[in-house]
Amino acid sequence: MLRGLANAGLWADDVDAAKDWYTRALSQAPYFERSGPDGRTAYAEFRIGDRPDELGIVDRRYAPPGSTWGTLGPVAYWHVDDVAAALDRLTGLGATPLDGPTHREDGFVTALVNDPFGNTLGLMHSPHYLAVREQAAPGDR
For the segment 77-135, what is each residue's pLDDT rounded down to a tens digit? Predict the structure, then answer.
């Protein structure tokens, strides 16, 4: 039923500030943006990684009615080659470390950070991710 990460969506009160921060953190600009009726950026989307996966930033004004944020919910973990280096880079850009790096069984390493906009990002060095990537057809890597 679940076939893979389609989009990791993050919320921000100021999408332009979040877009700028993620542009620096990812070393690339978003490939897609949409403005709201007031002309402010309402959505920005990046394609990142080997597949490439979608990371979207949505204006918090469009959150479902009654939603509350600020508590840890589902976390998308993104594969990185070096968790400690990724953690250092993101904290250097203003993210707050929450956990890790934590060395787990079989070569997995994880860490969590909060971006400056209150979203939790998971960082993971995943031998499984690398094995699946290696098994993919050359055009899919």
Answer: 899 999 999 999 999 999 999 888 999 888 999 999 989 998 888 899 999 888 888 88
Q: What homologous superfamily is domain 1-64 in, according to CATH?
A: 2,3-Dihydroxybiphenyl 1,2-Dioxygenase, domain 1 (3.10.180.10)
Cβ burial 28-37 (10 Å sphere, 16+ → b, else e): eebeeeeeee
> What are the helix (H) ranges across the chain?
15-26, 83-92, 127-135
Pairwise CA distance, residues 110 & 48, whole Å: 19
DSSP assignment of 128-139: HHHHHHHHS-GG
Helix (DSSP H) and strand (DSSP E) numbers for the chain: 3, 8
- How far apart CA 6 and CA 9 sit, in angstroms, is 10
Strand partners, 97: 113
Is the CA virtual torsion 5, 45, 30, 60 positive or negative? negative
Residues 5-49: tens digit of each pLDDT? 768 888 899 999 999 999 999 999 999 999 999 999 999 999 998
